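User: Second chain of the day. Same drill as before.
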Amino acid sequence: MSNKEFNYFETMSDWELVNSFNRETNNQAFVSAKARYMAALKEAFEQRDISLEHLVEKTAEGYSTLSLQKSVYLQEQGDKKVLIPIVPKGGRIIILDEE
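Assistant: Same format as last time:
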Protein backbone atom coordinates (compact mmCIF):
# COMPACT_ATOMS: atom_id res chain seq x y z
CA MET A 1 0.00 0.00 0.00
CA SER A 2 1.40 3.32 -0.98
CA ASN A 3 0.88 6.62 0.76
CA LYS A 4 0.55 8.13 -2.74
CA GLU A 5 -3.14 7.20 -2.70
CA PHE A 6 -3.57 9.52 0.28
CA ASN A 7 -0.82 12.01 -0.54
CA TYR A 8 -2.51 14.73 1.49
CA PHE A 9 -0.97 13.07 4.56
CA GLU A 10 2.38 14.42 3.37
CA THR A 11 1.23 18.01 3.90
CA MET A 12 -0.34 17.39 7.32
CA SER A 13 1.33 18.28 10.59
CA ASP A 14 1.90 15.52 13.15
CA TRP A 15 -1.13 16.84 15.07
CA GLU A 16 -3.33 16.61 11.98
CA LEU A 17 -2.22 13.00 11.45
CA VAL A 18 -3.14 12.19 15.06
CA ASN A 19 -6.57 13.80 14.58
CA SER A 20 -7.09 11.78 11.39
CA PHE A 21 -6.40 8.62 13.39
CA ASN A 22 -8.69 9.70 16.25
CA ARG A 23 -11.59 10.30 13.85
CA GLU A 24 -11.46 6.60 12.98
CA THR A 25 -11.45 5.25 16.55
CA ASN A 26 -14.62 3.48 17.63
CA ASN A 27 -15.90 3.67 14.05
CA GLN A 28 -17.56 0.28 13.63
CA ALA A 29 -17.67 0.40 9.83
CA PHE A 30 -14.85 -1.43 8.11
CA VAL A 31 -14.68 -1.59 4.35
CA SER A 32 -11.82 -1.91 1.91
CA ALA A 33 -11.57 1.89 1.44
CA LYS A 34 -11.11 2.36 5.19
CA ALA A 35 -8.49 -0.41 5.25
CA ARG A 36 -6.51 1.37 2.52
CA TYR A 37 -6.91 4.71 4.32
CA MET A 38 -5.67 3.26 7.62
CA ALA A 39 -2.73 1.50 5.90
CA ALA A 40 -1.69 4.81 4.33
CA LEU A 41 -2.10 6.62 7.66
CA LYS A 42 0.02 3.97 9.40
CA GLU A 43 2.67 4.38 6.71
CA ALA A 44 2.63 8.18 7.21
CA PHE A 45 3.25 7.72 10.95
CA GLU A 46 6.09 5.30 10.24
CA GLN A 47 7.69 7.65 7.69
CA ARG A 48 7.79 10.34 10.40
CA ASP A 49 9.25 7.87 12.92
CA ILE A 50 6.17 8.15 15.14
CA SER A 51 6.01 4.98 17.24
CA LEU A 52 2.81 2.91 17.17
CA GLU A 53 4.07 0.50 19.85
CA HIS A 54 1.12 1.12 22.20
CA LEU A 55 -1.45 0.53 19.44
CA VAL A 56 -0.24 -2.71 17.87
CA GLU A 57 -2.11 -5.82 18.97
CA LYS A 58 -1.41 -9.47 18.16
CA THR A 59 -4.30 -11.59 16.92
CA ALA A 60 -4.82 -15.21 17.93
CA GLU A 61 -3.35 -16.16 14.54
CA GLY A 62 -0.16 -14.20 15.27
CA TYR A 63 -0.84 -11.22 13.01
CA SER A 64 -0.22 -7.66 14.15
CA THR A 65 -3.12 -5.23 13.88
CA LEU A 66 -3.40 -1.52 14.58
CA SER A 67 -5.95 -0.95 17.34
CA LEU A 68 -8.63 1.68 16.69
CA GLN A 69 -10.33 1.18 20.04
CA LYS A 70 -8.69 4.15 21.74
CA SER A 71 -8.02 7.74 20.79
CA VAL A 72 -4.40 8.83 21.11
CA TYR A 73 -2.19 11.81 21.75
CA LEU A 74 1.31 12.47 20.48
CA GLN A 75 4.00 12.48 23.16
CA GLU A 76 7.65 13.33 22.68
CA GLN A 77 9.93 11.12 24.75
CA GLY A 78 13.41 12.53 24.29
CA ASP A 79 14.11 12.27 20.57
CA LYS A 80 11.29 9.75 20.07
CA LYS A 81 7.62 10.49 19.17
CA VAL A 82 5.03 8.02 20.47
CA LEU A 83 1.26 7.70 20.10
CA ILE A 84 -0.25 7.15 23.56
CA PRO A 85 -3.86 5.92 24.14
CA ILE A 86 -5.90 8.50 26.08
CA VAL A 87 -9.42 7.17 26.54
CA PRO A 88 -10.77 3.78 27.60
CA LYS A 89 -12.53 1.52 25.11
CA GLY A 90 -15.93 2.98 24.33
CA GLY A 91 -14.90 6.45 25.50
CA ARG A 92 -15.47 9.74 23.73
CA ILE A 93 -13.15 10.79 20.94
CA ILE A 94 -11.35 14.02 21.69
CA ILE A 95 -9.89 15.96 18.76
CA LEU A 96 -7.02 18.14 19.94
CA ASP A 97 -5.94 21.42 18.39
CA GLU A 98 -2.27 21.97 17.62
CA GLU A 99 -2.16 25.18 19.65
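The chain has two helices and five strands.

User: Great, on to the next one.
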